[in-house]
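Handout for the seminar on molecular recognition.
Each group receives one record of this type.
Step one: identify the two inputs.
Step two: read the structure output and locate the region that could contact iron/sulfur cluster.
Step three: write two sentences on what you found, then compare them with the reference statements printed after the record.
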Amino acid sequence: MNFAQIKELKDKILGGYQITKEDALKLVSTENLEALYYSANQIRAKFCGEYFEMWSVYHQNLGRCENDCTFCPMSNVTKVDYYATCDETCNIETVEKQAESMRILRAQGVRKVEIDSTHSSLNDENLSKMICMLNAIKNKVDIELCASFGILSREQLIRLKNETNINYYHCNIETSESFYHNVCTTIKPEDKYETLKTAKSLGFYTCSGGIIGLGESMEDRIDMALKLRSLNVDAISLNIMLPFPGTPLEKQARLSNQEILTTFAIFRFINPKAKLRFARGRSMIKIIEKEALKTGMNSSIVGELLVNAKGADIRNDIQLFESEGFIIRK
Ligand code: SF4
């Protein structure tokens, strides 16, 4: 696609058009990458404005996961026990400590913390524990919490809705449906889609996303973005593969900066209204972070609660986001 064709497509999107897979494939093969990134940023400005949201993640350790996701240090195929040294902050009894960390984040402008159960699903006993923890934290800190508990049944989601005042549910779809079996054989992606659909139908704001750099093609990324659009998710987290030693993907080649920026932009073209978030792997794109902020992104992970990837200093982050013209939504 040349400059004029990209502009024409962008203008159609600004008028309400939803791009097709064919459009998206043509877009990512353009040599006019600057026009692609610039247009993605204009789409973000039109539909999402200048507000920028900071969020963080807390991993609630429930032990090693029974699944075989090749990228994950918690999976049953990992050779290193990353959680052997997990400290007591990963204990369900230490809500006060968690709440204090979240108070500090809140004071710095972080609006939302995702509580990640680090498992693909929860039995009813663990769901009860998580509900208890969510309520205890909400009673202590004025912060939005997002439950990231994997695949839940309709009944479990109804419990979550009725027994907490949590408004956000998160479940990553990881990659395209056709590539999924390459990274995990123990979870059915359809179960994730069903969870997201059910959560949405019950009134949750839904967050999803995936990881780029698992060995998938650009077409797979486009398929993932289209699937997220069909699921009508409110926010999309884009993680960049962090190669953890001991995992099957420890030697996976890093994506080029151009591929990363193009992926961000095409996600914005396909999902004009969703919050588009930097998630794990931000450390991998430090040198292109300013450019990345001009490809349609409007949210980012920050903070020190992460177990697997240390967030950057929040003050520096705020300076960076504001220097690019964003207003931090506090
Ligand atoms: S289900 Fe989640 S925690 Fe379990 S191995 Fe897969 S990514 Fe890791």
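Reference statements: The pocket of iron/sulfur cluster is lined by residues 65, 67, 69, 72, 74-75, 118-120 (CB under 6 Å). Residues 83-90, 306-312 have pLDDT under 50 and may be disordered.
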